[in-house]
Amino acid sequence: MKKVFLLIIISLSLILMSSCKGGNMIVIELTDGREIKLELYPDVAPKTVENFYKLIDDKHFDNVIFHRVIEGFMIQAGALVIDGNTLDYNKSVSSIPGEFTSNGFVNDLKHVAGVISMARSNDPNSGGGQFFICSAASPHLDGKYAAFGKTVDEESLQVVLDISKVETTYFSGFNDFPVEPVVIKTIKRI
Hints:
Structural class: alpha+beta
Number of domains: 1
Order of helices and strands: HEEHEEEEEEHEEE
CATH superfamily: Cyclophilin-like
Number of helices: 3
Number of strands: 11
Radius of gyration: 18 Å
CATH architecture: Beta Barrel
Largest sheet: 9 strands, antiparallel
């Protein structure tokens, strides 16, 4: 009887573990102590997630700022780093193929509040080191940008919403640049 019970418990545990997308969690740690926890979806955008993990492992996002912040739309990071009072462009990274429908890749993840997606230029295969997190539903981006994950809880989404409301200005070619820098201390896998 004990063996049957143990076998049932082990089976249920394996079923639960296999139904979770565990191991695909990250946390964006800000210098002010706030955190944004996200789950990444390698089944939706495998090369994008693989690239993002590589950048995390290479510490590419350490001291990166959110340089583009638009309330009711999104917050974007990856282009600029801050070191003390010095603002500079982040090291360049290789571009990756755009994993979205209009680029010939099936990606049905909708750009709703909390979704993380790869930023790019007009070239559909120019994404690589910049990302954005939607602060509101943005259906005009669906099928045109590589969405690859989502915030996991209300606290994380609230941090995104709060960042999207900071005061902005025009600075060095960037519209919607935060007056007070919002700095990513690091991004970690969890």
